[in-house]
Amino acid sequence: MVDEKEPTRSEEKINRVPLMFVLISGAFAAILNQTLLATALPHIMRDLSLEASTAQWLTSIFMLVNGIMIPITAFLIGRFTTRALFLSAMGLFAVGTTICAIAPNFGILMVGRIIQASGAGIIMPLMQTILMMVYPIEKRGAAMGMFGLVISFAPAIGPTLSGWLVEQFPWRSLFYVILPVVIIDFIIAYFILKNVTKQTFPKIDVLSIILSSLGFGGILYAFSTAGNSGWAAQQVVIAMVIGVVALTWFILRQFKLQQPILEFRVFKNKVFTLTTALGMVVFIALIGGATVLPLFMQNMLGFTAFESGLMLLPGALLMGVMNPITGKLFDKYGARWLAIIGLVILTITTFMFTNLDSQTTFTYLAVVNAVRMLGVAMVMMPVTTAGLNQLSVDLMPHGTAMNNTMRQVSGAVGTALLVTVMTNGAIPDEGVNGLIHGVNVSFIVAGITAFVGLVLSFFIKSPKPGKKDQDQINEEDSKRALTSK
C-alpha cells in the first residue's frame, strides 16, 4: 500500500517535464481517436458494405464504453497503483488500436473500438488526478492549461486529419497513425512514471458497477441516438428509462456504502458544484458548434468534409495556444473574471451564428468560431481547476471522475439537443434557406445556454488560489483523519 504522504513527496522527486509529455501524449491519442472516425465513416461503409445506421455504432460504442468506464475510474484509482493503472489503460488502448487497424470485418472492428474505449475512459480522469497530485496548488492552473490544450486541440484536428488521410490512404491509416504514439508513450511511461495516487483498497460492489454502467450508458446512448432517430424512437425511450432508473438507484446506493464507487458528496462543495455546472454549459456550446457547423457546411453550403474540418482548425489552434496562458492567469488571478469575460465572448459569438444564410462565407465561419474558442479557453480549464482545488486529496479521484463524467454527459446531451432543434426548426419547403433556419434556431438555443453560464459565473466567489485554499484542504484532511480514527 502506498504511503499517505507519497503524493507530497512526489512533488519534489518527480521531473514534471517528461511526466507532462507522457500525460499529454496519452490524452492526445485518446481524444483524437474519439473524433477521428467521423469523416471516415463513408469510406468504411463502402469498404465493409455497411449501412449508415450500422456504421454509426463505431462512434457511438466508443462514447458509450468511454462513458461507462469514467465513473468507475475513481474506484480503480483507489484499488491500483498509478503505474499499474496507467500502463493497463494505455495497453488496452494500444491493443484496441491494433485490432482496429487489421480488422477484416465490422464485428472485429467493433471489438477493437470497445477495447480502445475501455482504455481511453480510464486515461482522462487518471491524468487529471495525477496532475492535481504532483503540482502544488499555486501551479495547478498552468498544468491544467497544458492539459486543456490537448482536450481542445485533439477533437478539432480530428476531422481535418481524418479527412486528409482517407482521401490519400485507406481508412486503416487512421489507426496506424495513432498506434506509434501510443506504443512510444507506453514505453516512456514504463520508465518514468511513479506512483503518486493513494491506494485505499475500496471493496468491489458489483451491483454499483452494474448500475453505473446501465445508468450512465443508458442516458448517453439515449441522448446520442435521439439526435438521429428522434426522441420518440423506441430504443431512445427504453434506454432513457433504464438509464434514469439505474442511475437513481446507483446514486442512492452510493450514499449508503462506506466506500462508494463514486463519491457524490463532492457536490456538497458549492464551488465544485458551480464550476462543474459551468464546465458542462461551456462544453454544450463547444460540442454543439463542432457538430452543427460541419453539418451546415457540408449539407447546406456544399463544402467537403475536409473543408469543414479545416474551418474548425483556427479555433482549435487559438484555443490550444490560449489554454496554457489562461492557466497561468488563473494561478495569478483566480477563475471569476476569466469565466465572466470568457462567457461574454462565448455568448456574443454564439449569437453571431444565428443569422447564417446560403451566402455565409468560409472566412466568417472560421473567424467567429475562432473567437468562440477563445471564450471557451478562458472558461473551461480555469473553472475545472478552481473546482478541483476545493477538494481534499482523498476526494480528488472522485472529483476528476465526476468532472469527466459530467462533461461526457453534457457533450451527448448538447449534441442531441442542438441536432434535434436544428432538425425540428428546419423548413424544408423553403429550400436551402429553410434548412439553414433550423441551424440558426439551434444556435439561439446554444446562445441562451451560454448566457445561463454567464449568469452563473457571477456566483464564483473563490479568491485567487493560494494559502487560504491550501489551509482549507489541510483542515479538511485533518478532520477526515480524526473521524476515521
From TrEMBL:
CDD domains reported for this sequence: MFS_LmrB_MDR_like
Domain of life: Bacteria
Cellular localization per UniProt: Cell membrane
Keywords linked to the UniProt accession: Cell membrane, Membrane, Transmembrane, Transmembrane helix, Transport
InterPro entries reported in the protein's UniProt record: EmrB-like, MFS, MFS_dom, MFS_trans_sf
Basic and acidic residues bias locations: 466-485
PANTHER family for this protein: MAJOR FACILITATOR SUPERFAMILY (MFS) PROFILE DOMAIN-CONTAINING PROTEIN (PTHR42718:SF24), MAJOR FACILITATOR SUPERFAMILY MULTIDRUG TRANSPORTER MFSC (PTHR42718)
Protein name, UniProt field: MDR family MFS transporter
Gene source species: Halobacillus seohaensis
